Hints:
This protein has 562 residues and is mainly β. The chain contains no helices and 41 strands. The strands form 8 sheets. Strands 4, 26, 29, 31, 32, 33, 34, 35 and 40 form a 9-stranded antiparallel β-sheet that branches. Strands 25, 27, 28, 30, 36, 37, 38, 39 and 41 form a 9-stranded antiparallel β-sheet that branches. Strand 11 and strand 12 form a beta hairpin. 51% of the residues are buried.
Amino acid sequence: MSVPASKVSAVSHPTPTIRNPILPGFNPDPSLLRVGDDYYIATSTFEWYPGVQIHHSRDLVHWRLLCRPLSRPSQLNMLGDPDSCGIWAPCLSYADGKFWLIYTDVKRYGRTSGGGTAGAAMRDFHNYLVTADRIDGEWSDPVYMNSSGFDPSLFHDDDGRKWFVNQLWDHRPGHNRFAGIVLQEYSAKERKLLGSRVNIFPGTPLGFTEAPHLYKRDGWYYLITAEGGTFWGHAVTLCRSRSLTGPYELHPDGPVLTARDRPDAPLQRAGHADLVETQDGQTWIAYLCGRPLKNRGRCTLGRETAIQPLVWGPDGWPRTTDGQGLPQLSAPAPNLPAHPWPAAPARHEFDSPQLPIDFQWLRSPWPEELFSLTARPGHLRLYGRETIGSQFKQALVARRQQAHCYSASTVVDFEPEHFQQLAGLVCYYGAAKFHYLYLSHDETLGKHLRVMTSIPDGVMADAFTAPIALPPGRRVELRVEVDEERLFFAYRLEGPGRSWQRLPQMFDASILSDEATSPGLANFTGAFVGVACQDLAGTAKPADFDWFEYRERPYRADPFAG
Length: 562
């Protein structure tokens, strides 16, 4: 089987068993690639910068976060991109001695006023191509491809020609918005698309046809797509043709992989898949999925990446090993030498001039305007910028929430002078979904601590706890404990013998999910935990964070008992 030249996050396990999801936390839209003995997965990053996550493995069991290739202004500028826009569905391939990366930068996904992105027919999907000699090296400036739809992919045929496919968006009234999969030749020499596009697959009655990838095997062209929408009805469909341009016949069993009719399945929302062959010819499918909370049914970890084997039948069609097309929590590992990676540290001291790779920020290609790791050595300094939720200059640095139960903490050195200066610890999904434990200043109370919550599906959009007075001139430790849908904050003044003071309120962690929504909100990213700073007076008042700690743990009825 010839897949787009070989297609690849960072959890290690002691037994030769794959535990799904292999990339926990917000890692959607996987593009899976093998080059020699190395496997890579590229996933979407949406409005988080730098763009595209690439994970690396040698055995399909153990994964490490390797790099993010879109890291400079000439490649990517997402200032103004609405929530859940930005980088969608990268496609990673290898041909002609180099790596190829196709991606979409979404500038408008429907109506963007009022913080929402739904309701308008016309969208801006800009598709680009970058290349690199080394996957973790310098990537090129982008080549613009088209803006006709999203989820682009590049297929390298065995005759040397290259073909660009993407979902076609049709904004016209009375037409199917998801208008099929279009194909067009790409000239690497001329760096542009050639000829006319051809609609090779209109989709099935499941609708929402997207996420195309092409492969070639035994003289057949295979086209994989996602259908049914990226929520509970998501599914992986497969079709084939003797001709690249079709017509394509559907898999006789229907969807190759889905949980759409199985609410009991622990992995839901399965879809948006890609295929790869191991060195011995075994086929594997990587796909996005979600793990709902038992109590609330919401996927607070966002859309994650899972992987499992497929087997080819005598009829020339692949199927899951159980024959039922169900996503699996585990699978026997392939016959490859085990290759674990060192565990990522739980605590970051910010002693390096580079931001630890687990962390990202929002939208801006100019991070020096938002934060510094050298202005005060050993600290992450955030410069107070725009409001939390701003689509432009927002000083918020965070990492993915990757488990349903975790503890996170930090210490902040911040002396606000008025109520428009804030800094603290935040659990963040987007502008309309967050819990923010922050320090500020009040004319009566002086320096104080409180929580601001943005509630997407509540009667009130914003809620505040009562302020807690704090003495000036003291660093403050901040802490969050998350146990599934329950979220608690605590604080303590730094110093020996100081005990944690738990805030009495229990907050709803489930709002940090795709499923917590209201009209006009887009819901495609995931939950992050990190630090933020605002100065609405425009004086860029800094806040210094000495360290940040994130630890995953078992469920605790009393999260402060451990």
